[in-house]
Amino acid sequence: MLIRALLVGAAVLAVTTGCGDDDSSAKSGTAGSSAQAPASETAAAAITLDVTADKTHAVQPGDEIRITVSVTGFALDGTKVGAGAAPGSGHYHVYLGDAQGEPLLVSAEGSAVVKVPADVTDGTHSLRVRLRNHDHSPLGPPVEATVRLIVYRL
User: Fold this and answer.
1) Could you tell me the sign of the dihedral formed by the alpha carbons of 18, 95, 52, 45, in that order?
2) Which residues have CB under 8 Å from 136's CB, separation 6+?
3) Which of 47, 56, 117, 129 is deepest in the core (most CB within 10 A)?
4) Which phi and psi (to 5°) does residue 98 adopt?
5) pLDDT tens-place string over residues 46-60
6) Residues 113-123 pLDDT 10s
7) Which residue has the higher pLDDT, 84 or 29?
8) How far apart are CA 85 and CA 87, in angstroms?
9) CB–CB of 151/116 below 8 Å?
10) Phi, psi of 113 (to 5 degrees)
């Protein structure tokens, strides 16, 4: 029980540190973050999620951003989206800002294009990628990673 609590605490810390305003993850025009969390209540293996984007600064409304998603300990399987949940496999949802409401994208591909909404405001935003079960329910605890975007109109 103590080991599980430590793993969950480490996952919360990893997710929290990936969501801050620190831009130390930016490298050569890309940025990303990773998070770790237990695969399930009974599984010993951890799930890791890493996300990078080809464009993070001077993002304009309507721009298309290519993201690359890497996952270990979890299988991305687009053929079963909408089916019943199966431990250790699923897909991801992409959100701008918090992980509420309709996602910008639902995918299981390692690389995907996300379109920045036309109504996005200027400033710093998080492009949030969250792993989901086949039935769209979130993993417990949630596994997500973020990429920081800086939006401004020319």
Assistant:
1) positive
2) 81, 82, 93, 106
3) 129
4) -75, 165
5) 999 999 999 999 999
6) 999 999 999 99
7) 84
8) 7
9) yes
10) -110, 130
Mean pLDDT of the chain: 78
Q: Please report, as a single letter, which amino acid is at residue 133.
A: N
154: which residues sit within 8 A by CB, 6+ positions away? 60
| Beta strands, E only, the chain | 31-38, 46-53, 64-72, 75-76, 89-96, 105-107, 111-115, 123-133, 144-151
pTM of the model: 0.72
Q: Measuring CA to CA, how many Å separate 114 from each of 1, 22, 36, 52?
A: 39, 23, 23, 12
Residues ≥6 apart with Cβ < 8 Å to 150: 56, 57, 58, 59, 123, 124, 125
Q: Is 14 helix (H, G, I), strand (E, B) or coil?
A: helix
Residues sharing a CB contact under 8 Å with residue 113, sequence separation 6 or more, in sequence order: 64, 65, 66, 67
Is pLDDT of 7 > 70? no
